[in-house]
Amino acid sequence: MNWPGSKLLDPKANSEVGLRIDDNDRVRILTAVATRGARFQVWRVLVITLSLLILLAVPLTDTVRLDLWSGNHHLLGEQVGAIEALKGFVIAMALLWGFTFATNVIVGRFFCGWGCPVGYVSRLGEDTQLKQRKRGLRWALSHLAGAAFVATFVASVMLWWVDWRVLVEGSWTARAVVVGIWLLLCLGGLLHAVVWRFGFCKTACPIGLYYRFVTSSTPIGIVFSNTPDPCIECGACEKVCPVDIDPKRLGETLVRDDDGPDGEEYYGDAECIRCGDCVEACEMIFKGRPGETPPLRFGRVHSESHD
Ligand code: SF4
Ligand code: SF4
Questions:
Q1: Which residues lie below 8 Å from residue 287, measured CB to CB, with a gap of 6+?
Q2: Average pLDDT, the chain
Q3: Domain tally for the chain?
Q4: Which of 157, 187, 212 is the last residue of a domain?
Q5: On the CB side of 45, how many CA atoms lie within 13 Å of its CA?
Q6: Nearest CA to ligand 1 atom 1
Q7: Three-state SS at 162
Q8: How would DSSP label each residue in 11-70?
Q9: What are phi and psi of 74, to 5 degrees?
């Protein structure tokens, strides 16, 4: 194997299966996956772009805005009072919740892994990390893309609360306050990308925590099957999982290792954000085993698929 990233695999380490991931670093395994053609990346960019466009379009088209600057509240294109705009805001949030709930019933926490801008900021943070060894054009572009995404995401959230016209018609004080808040929130987003990343999805996101409790087994998800070809126990899928679960045991109630013998119990499927990183890592491993089928894939979940 002479492809970039092959250093992650040590053929001598496990003579029975021939391959073994010997690096615990999720980002480095993702680098190896990327160099072998990460096929979900284009889809992920499309889904997150759609998410961001919806977030931007709602206030920019005056569909809903609760304007804290000048009271220029809007609902469905009409100027309304604060109470009406607040009702519109609540309805918009309920629609978003209804949409993510419906997707959650069918495909679990798919929104967390594919459509959530905060999760995408985590991913962009990892992307800048994996390119930082060589400070060239790719390094600069990855930082630029990350910063641009954070800036646009923060602006899209602020537009729900502040009419953008404040930047043109507002007093210098009002402009300074709005830009100052935007910069502060951007700084928070960049810190998240550098420090917290998927730890936020795992431990703090209120939407994620809610779905952890309501998610049971879903008809579509990550499928693990030892037929037609068996798992070679290389561990790549587990090491690459951003929320630290074992993709081969999603249908089971597990116990967190880091909490000792009395650790917190959790249901694997409810934690999985359906990001597909484990599937891509498994596919990468099996590219070194021509003719064999990777045991992990997206698909219809049958009760026996986790056996
Ligand atoms: S189990 Fe796989 S799809 Fe689920 S969160 Fe982990 S890496 Fe992503
Ligand atoms: S499911 Fe795939 S990536 Fe995971 S341990 Fe088995 S062979 Fe390796």
A1: 36
A2: 86
A3: 2
A4: 212
A5: 8
A6: 247
A7: coil
A8: TTT-TTTS--B----HHHHHHHHHHTT-TTHHHHHHHHHHHHHHHHHHHHTTSEE--TTT
A9: -135, 150
Q: Residue 283 C-alpha to ligand 2 middle, in angstroms?
A: 9
Ligand 2 center from residue 160 Cα (angstroms): 44
Predicted pLDDT at 203: 86
What is the greatest pairwise CA distance in the chain?
Answer: 72
Q: What is the mean pLDDT of residues 182-194?
A: 95
Tokens of 136: 């060239």
Can you name the residues that pair with 265 across neighbouring β-strands? 255
- Cα 279 to ligand 2 centroid, rounded to whole Å: 9
CB 295 within 8 A of CB 226: yes
- Given 212, 239, 262, the domain boundary residue is 212
Ligand 1 pocket, Cβ-based, cut-off 6 angstroms: 113, 222, 241-243, 245, 247, 272-278
Which of 14, 26, 19, 2 is CA-nearest to residue 275? Answer: 26
Same domain, 79 and 178: yes
Q: Is the pTM of this model over 0.70?
A: yes
Whole-angstrom CA distances from 42 to 37, 39, 56, 245 are 11, 7, 21, 25
> Per-residue pLDDT tens for 254-275?
887 665 666 778 788 888 999 9
